Amino acid sequence: KEAMSRYLHTRDGRAVTVKLSVPTSTRSLNQNRWYWGIVLAIIAESTGHTAEEIHLALKDMFLPRKFVKLGSREVPVQKTTTDLTSAEFGKYLEQITAWAAQDLGITIPQAH
Q1: How confident is the model at residue 20, as a pLDDT?
Q2: Residue 39 Cα to chain centre, angstroms
Q3: Phi and psi for 74 in degrees, rounded to 5?
Q4: Secondary element (H or E) of residue 3
Q5: For residues 84 and 28, is the Cβ–Cβ distance under 8 A?
Q6: Which residues, 6+ apart, have CB-to-CB distance to 74 below 8 Å?
Q7: Are 31 and 91 a contacting pair, CB within 8 Å?
Q8: Is the separation of the CB atoms in 25 and 90 below 8 Å?
Q9: Which residues contact 65 (CB under 8 A, 6 or more apart)?
Q10: Angle at CA of residue 45, ends 77 and 98, nearest 5°
Q11: What is the DSSP string of 26-92?
Q12: Eight-class DSSP state of 9
């Protein structure tokens, strides 16, 4: 409260927008290691593409897009896996493993 009060006094009566949100945890390092070291590696080896190519394709397939209005245009903006919460990243991984099993016939082992 004190820090906010000091900051508001520096604004000399000018408008300020304050946003409060519930903190969320981003994807864990273990999730990220498993994604790059296991999931992408297995799919890349099976398909002959690089892990980076697979990563870009999977983001395009499974991450939601939002649209940003720039002038008269609406431009699609895709989330990055870096911005996902642990829960969102977990769901993303579940979608990938289900897709890999169904469409590619690849079984990806579960993370420990």
Answers
A1: 66
A2: 15
A3: -110, 120
A4: helix 2-10
A5: no
A6: 67, 68
A7: no
A8: no
A9: 76, 77, 78, 79
A10: 60
A11: BPPHHHHHHIIIIIHHHHHHHHT--HHHHHHHHHHHHS-EEEEEETTEEEEEE--GGG-BHHHHHHH
A12: H
Name the pTM for this structure.
0.71
Tokens of 3: 């820090």
Model pLDDT, residue 41: 97
The secondary structure element, H or E, covering residue 96 is helix 86-99
Q: Write out the two tokens for 63.
A: 């991450």
Strand partners, 77: 66
* 112 residues of the chain, pLDDT tens digit each: 787 778 778 878 888 777 665 555 677 888 889 999 999 999 999 999 999 999 999 999 999 888 999 999 999 888 789 888 899 999 999 999 999 999 999 999 987 6
